[in-house]
Write a structure and sequence with these properties.
Layout (H helix, E strand, L loop, with lengths): L16 H14 L12 H8 L3 H13 L3 E2 L7 E2 L41 H14 L14 H15 L8 E4 L2 H12 L9 E6 L3 H9 L3 E8 L2 E2 L11 E4 L13 H14 L2 E5 L24 E6 L11 E4 L5 H11 L5 H12 L2 H28 L3 E3 L7 E6 L6 H9 L6 E2 L11 E5 L8 H13 L6
Helix pairs in contact: 1-3, 2-3, 4-10, 5-10, 6-7, 6-9, 11-13
Length: 474
């Protein structure tokens, strides 16, 4: 056990004491200063040594346990967890022909990928937007700062450093209209850059259909890599080595899985040794209903191989058209040059208003409120679907995010046909098979953001009726 006198002092002026304790322990583990199985100080002893409340240390330890760094059992000491690395080079077949994109219904009930825009804080946003529109300075209105105004870069970085554990400088934050624009920028400078792995992208399977389409448009050779309950399993990928690896580690789209720590560390080491860039799309990970959000992959990246993507489309509204990328230092100049050429710029008054909105706590307050709203809607949706559709569907746990995955108990079901049958009754579900590039497990994907708790039961009953009268029932 590490003596408590060896622990670093806590900077009280910096605030977030729990986060400081969490990062001190995490970094010791990641840097090899604490070995697997090593016993940690008791929460009481460490709290006394650091002059913090015991509850602060308890919360930090709980966070580290949730993310896989520590393990403990009732009545036993807390110890450093072991991180077995998966063996690379097992098998998944590279498909030479990829399926064409499926047309998805929009505007119906349970539509995935859309937030509740009726909950948008219209009055507050109008005040910030109006104030900034009247007070923009002359130098704000020129062609400078293609990557975004510094105020917004700093505000975003302050937020994601605290809530997602991201580590960067403001210069690494690039403001773009959408995450799709960010993926386009990164593929434009990375896929065909005279690299030994030119043109090859590894992507989660199942995965985000928009990312599939963007990489396909860029001419990438896509290698689907299976995902399971621990996230992407690079040990099951065979084919050309990648230049890009696209992942959604904190809340995998569409399954909702969280990538385990051992998989995260293996992915980072693999990317570092192969010269690949990992695109971490932090898709709707701000919304967690049973625990605090898992820290971003970027925050434990010591090789600068991760480009981190975030958006305000799910947390505020798609119509704002504001997203961001936190890119490795060596890519900043190339990304900004590509951005100038492609015109992927967010209007300056929107940027300035959003910076104020974040810095004055309005964004954080909106997130807290919507987390409660969406938690209630997710719980109601899970309960209703289990009650009415449990004979056909195995419904996910729904512990976070705005989408809910389900799988048909009968794996011979044609989920595209089932989707069409259900959607004909006013729904906008998606077939899980349409989100696969490799072998697919049939299922349906639900969006819960606009499904009020009071309407979930009736909606699920309608879905059950549609399934009962379709070919799914045989």
């Amino acid at each position: 056990m590490v003596s408590v006198v060896q622990w670093a002092d806590i900077d009280r002026a910096a605030g977030d004491l729990e986060g400081q304790v969490y990062r001190v322990v995490r970094d010791r583990i990641l840097h090899g200063q604490m070995a697997a199985g090593q016993r940690l100080p008791s929460t009481r002893a460490l709290a006394i040594a650091l002059s913090v409340a015991r509850s602060t240390v308890v919360s930090a330890y709980d966070r580290l346990k949730a993310e896989g760094y520590l393990q403990s059992t009732t009545g036993a000491a807390t110890r450093v967890a072991a991180f077995p690395s998966p063996l690379l080079g097992q098998s998944v077949t590279l498909r030479s022909k990829l399926p064409q994109a499926t047309e998805f219904a929009t505007g119906g009930l349970f539509e995935p990928g859309v937030p509740d825009v009726e909950a948008f804080p219209h009055a507050a946003w109008a005040r910030y937007l109006g104030a900034r529109g009247r007070s923009l300075r002359v130098h704000d209105l020129g062609y400078g700062a293609h990557g975004g105004i510094r105020e917004l870069r700093e505000a975003i970085l302050d937020h994601i450093a605290t809530t997602r554990g991201v580590i960067a400088r403001p210069e690494q934050v690039v403001i773009v209209p959408t995450t799709g624009a960010a993926i386009n920028l990164l593929t434009s400078i990375l896929l065909w850059a005279d690299h030994p792995n030119d043109g090859v992208a590894w992507i989660e399977d199942p995965g985000y259909a928009t990312a599939h389409a963007l990489l396909r448009m860029a001419g990438a050779t896509m290698v689907p890599v299976p995902c399971d309950a621990e996230g992407i399993d690079i040990g099951r990928a065979v084919g050309p080595p990648p230049r890009l690896i696209y992942v959604t580690p904190s809340h995998q789209y569409p399954t909702g899985a969280t990538m385990s720590l051992s998989r995260r560390l293996a992915l980072l080491e693999f990317a570092r040794t192969r010269g690949a860039i990992v695109i971490e799309d932090d898709y709707d990970s701000e919304f967690q209903y049973e625990s605090r959000p898992i820290a971003a992959l970027q925050g434990i990246d010591r090789g600068e191989v991760v480009a981190y993507l975030g958006t305000f489309s799910k947390t505020l509204a798609p119509g704002l058209r504001v997203a961001y990328a936190v890119v490795p230092s060596r890519l900043v100049a190339s990304v900004e040059a590509a951005q100038r050429l492609r015109g992927a710029i967010v209007p300056v008054h929107i940027q300035a208003a959003l910076a104020d909105f974040i810095r004055e706590g309005r964004f954080r307050a909106h997130l807290r409120r919507m987390n409660g709203v969406y938690a209630e809607r997710m719980a109601a949706s899970v309960a209703a679907l289990n009650s009415h559709c449990g004979a056909w569907l195995c419904v996910g746990a729904g512990t976070g995010g705005l989408q809910l995955a389900s799988w048909f108990r009968d794996e011979a079901v044609d989920d595209l046909a089932a989707m069409r049958s259900v959607n004909a009754h006013g729904f906008a579900l998606r077939a899980m098979s349409s989100l696969h590039l490799g072998p697919a497990r049939p299922g349906l994907l639900f969006g819960i953001a606009r499904m009020g708790a009071e309407g979930a039961d009736a909606a699920a009953a309608r879905i059950a009726n549609a399934l009962a009268t379709s070919s799914v029932s045989g």
